[in-house]
Amino acid sequence: MAGYGIRDLERLLKVKIHVLRYWEKEIPLIQPKKDTSGKLHYSDRDLQIFLRLKHLLYKRRFTITGAREELFREASGNYQDLHAQLAALRSDLAGLYHLMVKTKDDGD
Q1: What are the angstrom distances between the C-alpha of 31 and each of 1, 97, 105?
Q2: Rg (alpha carbons) of the chain, rounded to whole number
Q3: pLDDT above 80 (res 88)
Q4: What percent of the chain has pLDDT over 90?
Q5: Most buried of the four, 21, 23, 48, 81, by CB within 10 Å?
Q6: Vertex 55, ends 90 and 102: CA angle to 5°?
């Protein structure tokens, strides 16, 4: 099953696992899937929600309740432009990540 494990999210988001688990309980938009062994896997969509949630909580200083409400507003389609911006940003970030990995591999 493709996706991210909780440790991948911890590393990418720089947020402790117990915090991610709390956010997962508080934000029903986050919907990890279990594999046959019972391990949770998070989709790209889940990662995007975690990234947005982190921004709302840490940069914009929302409460968890306020952030949940904002995420629901955004998910309802009121922010089509924001979705396009996030898609473009995600593409840019993926490109930068691959460039960093290539640079690191070339330096070894």
Answers
A1: 14, 25, 34
A2: 15
A3: no
A4: 60
A5: 23
A6: 35
Q: Nearest CA to 24 among 96, 84, 4, 107?
A: 4
Q: What residue ranges define each of the domains in the chain, with the CATH number in brackets?
A: 6-78 (1.10.1660)
Cα–Cα dist 6/73, whole Å: 26
Residue 42, Cα to own-chain centre: how many angstroms? 9
pTM of structure: 0.69
pLDDT of residue 92: 85
| CA distances (Å), origin 94, targets 26, 27, 57 | 28, 25, 23
**Looking at the predicted structure, is the pLDDT value of residue 20 above 80?**
yes
